[in-house]
Write a sequence for this structure.
């Protein structure tokens, strides 16, 4: 379904600030699988997601989605196949436009936009019904500007909008990180419901190990721009938060050893 | 009375310019200074073509398209060449100054003896209603020519305003509004924000050039200097309109912009009548826009101080 082959992204190449954000990463994701991506800050997990969405074009390697090579496609072209929810709850909706208008924009993701009316009486009742499934009472406020809603409500709507037309790939970028725990739980519940109902192929970046353990059928841990661990199926099911924590510790220890050795060498020989 | 009707008419002509600036300022959040070049560009094209014997209707239409082309160039400089939006506008405005001189062939083209869209309309209206040379309006004798000019311009503004409102309710129009409101979101929904900016600026400058073409035909000449200060004029109209109706919904914003332009023109006419030095006009317009832009900020600060003082008292 999704094939990532040897992609690398380097920021500020050939300068002292050079960062290898992605280092020869390859990954194949099957149709209908729900992958959570873990990693420390700067591990490359967000860069991977952004590379898939088209914010960064990889320096080398290829990305093939459902048989189509999208490596060089622009972000808005990829949006035809990819639905996306951002970390910032305010990023996914247009604040000054009404709920209905925002939904109508999402309902034409990947389709042409001509001079037809954005809102129809016919589609409005359909909008109302789908929004009702969120259980947030928003179905009565279709004409309100979306900027008046809370972060949680906006994030729930963004999720609904990203999946309004079934995407081939759903990208979730720490989409509950900026919400309070109660709201985050609600959004996660909703995420799970929608993904299961529509059997969506999903890549979810998270910093919550609990979420990674509870959700999905595959966990990928990234470190220094590479995939450090990859657990699937039965192996993933057995994984607990403590196991993940010890893996993180292991990565950290390795890293400390490397840097201390480097220091030792430097003090001895330089 | 003639003065009042004249102010109304010019206010309405400039309302179309204000609608163009409404697109760049309110939809894309950047005041596009290409306006000062494209209003003259529209006037120059219309004047040159009318003098050359082209029908005024066709000349006005070509002026509109010329403005669209100018706006598209600004948009392309911004998006394809990543030039800062203000600088892109300045570049095109400066370039248009030379283009305008070439189009007109000299710095001023008189149109007084030519037929224009407005004289067309006069004749049409005259043949339908058989109007006398002067009309009695509330006890004032007004040349019927002025009335028909006003009606003609009013009709054009009304149609433009309605079309613009309807456009912003279509799929492509809502995508354009979303581009200015949240570019990241609309890209993730499959819209090329670059394309929308180019199209939006083209539409904006098309309207501004249309306004220039009408202004040239109404006042009877096109002048290479006529664009100076037009951007601030349009901003003032948009801001007054917002304050007048105090409603952020699209229909009200568009209606407000038109009303703002007319009200502002009337205020200026009154001030000039009271003996304001015409040389001070642009200074006062700029001051007015400055105050309108900073007032919400200053009021907010005063409120904050009051709230702080109250909490510290407790």
């Amino acid at each position: 379904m999704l094939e990532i082959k040897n992609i690398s992204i380097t920021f500020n190449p050939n300068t002292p600030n050079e960062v290898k954000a992605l280092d020869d990463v390859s990954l194949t994701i099957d149709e209908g699988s729900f992958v959570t991506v873990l990693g420390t800050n700067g591990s490359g997990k967000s860069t991977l997601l952004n590379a898939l969405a088209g914010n960064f074009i990889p320096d080398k390697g290829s990305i093939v989605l459902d048989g189509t090579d999208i490596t060089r496609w622009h972000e808005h072209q990829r949006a035809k196949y990819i639905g996306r929810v951002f970390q910032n709850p305010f990023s996914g909706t247009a604040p000054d436009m009404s709920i209905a208008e925002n939904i109508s924009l999402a309902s034409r993701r990947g389709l042409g936009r001509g001079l037809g009316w954005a809102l129809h009486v016919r589609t409005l009742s359909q909008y109302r019904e789908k929004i009702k499934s969120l259980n947030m009472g928003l179905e009565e406020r279709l004409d309100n500007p979306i900027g008046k809603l809370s972060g949680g409500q906006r994030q729930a709507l963004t999720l609904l909008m990203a999946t309004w037309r079934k995407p081939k790939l759903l990208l979730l970028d720490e989409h509950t990180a900026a919400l309070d725990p109660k709201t985050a739980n609600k959004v996660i519940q909703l995420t799970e419901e929608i993904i299961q109902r529509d059997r969506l192929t999903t890549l979810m970046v998270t910093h919550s190990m609990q979420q990674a353990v509870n959700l999905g059928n595959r966990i990928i841990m990234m470190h220094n721009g590479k995939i450090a661990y990859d657990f699937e199926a039965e192996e993933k099911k057995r994984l607990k938060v403590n196991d993940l924590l010890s893996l993180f510790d292991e990565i950290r220890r390795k890293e400390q050893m490397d840097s201390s050795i480097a220091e030792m060498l430097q003090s001895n020989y330089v | 009375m003639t003065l009042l009707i004249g102010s109304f008419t010019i206010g309405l002509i400039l309302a179309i310019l204000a609608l163009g600036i409404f697109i760049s300022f309110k939809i894309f959040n950047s005041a596009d200074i290409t306006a000062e070049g494209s209003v003259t560009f529209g006037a120059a094209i219309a004047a040159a073509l009318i003098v050359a014997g082209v029908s005024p209707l066709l000349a006005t239409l070509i002026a509109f398209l010329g403005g669209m082309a100018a706006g598209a160039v600004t948009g392309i400089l911004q998006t394809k060449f990543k030039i800062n939006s203000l600088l892109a506008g300045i570049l095109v405005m400066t370039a248009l100054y030379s283009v305008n001189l070439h189009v007109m062939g000299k710095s001023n083209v008189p149109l007084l003896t030519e037929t224009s869209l407005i004289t067309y309309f006069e004749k049409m209206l005259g043949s339908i209603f058989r109007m006398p040379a002067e009309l009695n309006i509330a006890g004032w004798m007004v040349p019927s020519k002025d009335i028909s000019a006003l009606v003609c311009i009013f009709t054009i503004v009304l149609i433009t305003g309605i079309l613009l409102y309807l456009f912003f309710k279509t799929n492509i129009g809502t995508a354009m509004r979303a581009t200015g409101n949240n570019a990241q979101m609309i890209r993730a929904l499959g819209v090329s924000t670059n394309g929308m900016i180019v199209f939006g600026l083209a539409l904006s400058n098309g309207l501004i050039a249309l306004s220039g073409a009408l202004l040239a035909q109404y006042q009877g000449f096109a002048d290479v200097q006529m664009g100076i200060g037009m951007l601030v004029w349009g901003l003032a109209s948009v801001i007054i309109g917002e304050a007048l109706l105090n409603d952020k919904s699209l229909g009200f914003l568009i209606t407000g912009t038109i009303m703002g332009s007319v009200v502002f023109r009337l205020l200026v006419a009154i001030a000039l009548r009271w003996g304001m030095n015409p040389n001070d006009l642009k200074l006062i317009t700029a001051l007015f826009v400055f105050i309108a832009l900073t007032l919400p900020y200053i009021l907010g600060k005063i409120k904050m101080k009051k709230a702080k003082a109250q909490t510290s008292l407790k």
